[in-house]
Amino acid sequence: MIVIQNAVLRNPAFRFREPVSLTVEAGEQIAVVGPNGSGKSVLAQMITAAYPLREGTITYDFSSSPVYRNIKFIAFRDSYGPADASYYLQQRWNSQDRDESPPVRDTLGPAGNNSLRKQLFELFGIDGMLDKQTVLLSSGEMRKFQLAKALLTEPRLLIIDNPFIGLDVSTRDRLSGLLNSLIRTGAVQIMLLLAKTDEIPGFITHVIPVRDRYCGEKVSRDRFRAGTTEAPAISGLVPPGAACHPGKTGDAIIEMHDVSVRYGSHTILKSLNWTVKRGEKWALLGPNGSGKSTLLSLVCADNPQSYACDISLFGRRRGSGESIWDIKKRIGYVSPEMHRAYSENIPAIEIVASGLHDSVGVYVRPRPEQFRVCEWWMNAFGILHLRDRNFLQMSDGEQRLVLLARAFVKDPELLVLDEPMHGLDTANRSLVRQVIEAFCRRENKTFIMVTHYEQELPECIIHRLALG
What backbone phi and psi angles, to 5 degrees, belong to 382? Predict the structure, then answer.
C-alpha cells in the first residue's frame, strides 16, 4: 500500500536521525508506539506527505488519486476543533444567541454510506449533538465528532493519534469494537499512534517502535514486547520559596449553591450544590458532555456565567469586587482546552514562567530567582532539557509536561488538573502521578482532578463528585 525508501525530510527540525525505510502492506493494522517526543507524529506526517522530502521516495498504490483523499490523519489538536486565539468559553458565551459556530449537522458532509453513518451515530451519540453548535461540544464530544467525521469520508487508511484519550470508558470499548468490525469488512485500514503501550487493541497486527527519532523495524504484534518504565520514586516536593497559604484546614475554598449553566436552549449544569474545603482532594468524574470542564471553568474564573450564579471562591462571593486575577493567582490549572488554545511558539521556559502571572506568553520579565523556580519545576517533570526549545516544535506529550510545570510553578493553594495525563507515555504518567502525590502531601494543598482512567487517580483522592 505504501513504500518509503530512504526518506529524509527537508526540514531538519522534524528529521529522523537516519533515513526512514518502511513498507505498509494492504491489510496490515499498525500501531506506531513510542515515548513522548520520539517522532511518532513526524512519521505520520511523512506518510501523509505533509512535509516535503529532501531525499528518498514515498510511493502509494493509489498514486492516480491524491493522498489526502485516501489517508486521513486525526492529530491530538484536531480532536478539540480548529485552533483559535480565543478561549473556548468566551466563544461559547458569544455564540449562544448568534450563529457564530455551525451546528454539528452542517459539518458532517453528505449522507454517503448510510449503514456506516448509522453505526457511527449510535456509537458516538451523534443524534444528540446534531443541533449543537460545534463550539458548545465538550472536549470528549469534540473527539467523538472528529472521529465520526473522518470515518464518514471512508479513507483507505485512517491514522489516529492516541485514539482513546478524552473518551469515557464505554466509548473507548465501543470505538475499539467498531474499528475492529470496519477492519473485518475491509472498509478501512488503521494506523494508531500510541504513547501508552498498554492500549494496543487486539485488532493490531504489526507494531512500529519509534524512539529518540529512530524509526524501528516493523514487527508482528506477537514479536513486540512493550517494556514499561516506571519513574523513580519522589519523596518530597518543596520548591524554592515555597508558598505558605493563609487560612485553616477545613475552611471552604469553593461553595456552589443551586448552580445552573445554560447556553441557549442547552443546559450543561442544573441545580448543582458543591463545597470543597481547604486541604481536600477531589476526583471530578462523569461521561463525555456531562459538564466537568464547564464546572471547572466556574472554579477557575474563566466562565462569564459565574457572575449569575451563587458561587464563592476562597471565601468571597463572585461579583463582590474581586478581580479574575485575584482568583487566578491562587489556582494552578491545566486542561485539554487550554492546551489547544496555547499556540505561542516561544521557548518552554517562557511558557512555564507565564504561569507566574496567568498570561499567555511572558509580558513581565521574571526575576532571576523566578526563573530558578521555573527550572526547578521543569526538572521535577523531567523536561529541563527542553528549556530553550520552542513550544510548537515539541511533541504533544512534551507540550503537556510543559503546561503541567506552568500549573505548578506558583506553588498554588488550589491545583485543578483536567485530564492531566492526556497523551503521556507510561513513564511520564508514572512521574506526573508521583509529582501530584508529593504536592498533595503538603499542608493546606487543595486538589481537584478530572480523568476517565480510574488508575490515573492518585491515592490521596478521598472525595468524588460524579456528574451525569
Answer: 70, 25
